[in-house]
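Hi C.,

You asked whether I'd gotten around to modeling the 566-residue construct. I have! Everything is below, sequence then structure, no commentary in between.
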Amino acid sequence: MKYLLFIAFLLTIFSSVFSQSPVSKQYPSNYFRDPLNIPISLAANFGELRTNHFHMGLDIRTEKRENLPVYAAADGYVSRIKIEPEGFGQAIYINHPNGFTTVYAHLNSFFPALADYIKKKQYKLETWKIFLDLPPEMFPVKKGNVIAHSGNTGGSEGPHLHFEIRRTSDDTNLNPMLFGLPIPDNTKPVIQRLAVYDLNQSIYEQTPRSWVLKKSEDGNYTIIPDTITISASKTGFAITAFDTQSASSNPNGIYEAVLYDNEQAVLSFQMDAINYNDTRNVNAHIDYKTRAQNGPWLQQLFELPGYKHSIYHLIGGNGVIDISDGTVHSIRIEVKDAYGNSSCLKYKIRYVENGSNNHPAAGKMFYPMMVDGYEDEDCAFYIGEKCLYDSVHIQYSNPPPLSPGAVSMAHSIGALYIPLQDPFMVRIKTNRPAERNRILMERFDRKKKEVKKPEWQGDWASARFQDFGNFQLVLDEEPPVITPHFKEGANLSRASGVAFTIKDNFDSYKNFRAELDGKWLLFTNDKGKAFIYKFDEHCPRGKHQLKISVEDEAGNKTIKTFKFIR
């Protein structure tokens, strides 16, 4: 009996300990090798904060060079191939027998047998942009086989290899730094800034108080003075922090943060597993408003009510600290990297009643997890249940039309500092319904514009958008412009290929097609810039006729024919 009581006591102790901090995932160590043959130096790590997404792998530097050999990280088979103008550019997926998939992106080229197969598929399907699933027996690979050469394709802004490890069963991305890759890291994370919020009101309808932190002699962090007084009975905290690896000053993302209130763990987050379906939820993890207004990255240590599939572990609550008792609360925030190096921030906070200085925000209040809308004489919009992360007032107004081709009033909806998880629907009434076939719905703000082909119901056009802003209907009757990088009838026998630049008044061209002497021809379009064809067996020596056709979002089409000699 004493033995059973002792075991029960131990289980109680262990349960208490483990309930305060999530148990680290155990992944196979040393199963995967370095995908390059140079020391790993990171330009970015897993979970790093990016605009509208978490970074989902490791960006491994290639010494500012391209065409370094890329090696299979373990035995397996090529399961997928992706080629696209942005995003991954050219990428290989390899499935491994242990239930994981590795991904290698921004490649310049594939190994010869695979490259030949892809090219044949592109000609058969008549598309350069491609996403292929391959059977296990087609391209098996061994650990250390050269599978590709590194590059700078797609959304890459400089030569590097983007490397991911995923769980094959559900395609969830895992932190590669938990798999024992040879990445030296003996440095502690740096905590730069603390922000404090009033969680009695919307996160988007306040400006937090913030402090630049002081590093103490013991290597930890504090604020001066070390006690915060605030008139918010329910508070939340956010931090600016980064991590480095040994012999590198590059600021990468942190792995873990744990919030303690009077030494009781309340909430934590770990950058260990994120699915691409949830990567946009970075906007619920950061103070989106502060960042949208050119402020610092602030990682919140509280969970917003509309943030589902979150990275948070709710240990003793959702991160909301109730200080209405008026006593001093000792707060500790512990920040770690994937190798256990840690830094600590300590301070105190106390509630002081000061009356309410909050002024009601303009607009209609919308709530997460609810469907609601707004309807006016010429405009309506609808917010779905998964659109918002927090409650917020959304304003509507009528600014003057800003595009010369406007065929409706302009409508301002919401604010740019309110993020949307799912697209919301906008409906606008036009005064030119007879021309609907060439009418687009345009969204514009101070930074960018975008257009979409709307759906119609009577005089009303509807389309979905991922951001708030200004909206109007515009008439587009202007076809794309095709500009060759060579002269008509030119002798190109010494050239490596041909190229074209495509321009459109709304930057919405699509359906580019090239035919050489009546047969489809493969043009690349890396980064969405020039369309390029490099001479190969599909263009023998002699005279040729090349037909280029391009269509824009409104359906305007341009077709041009060019002659050249090779």
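If it helps when you're writing up: Residues 42-178 form a domain with the Glucose Permease (Domain IIA) fold (CATH 2.70.70.10).

Thanks,
B.
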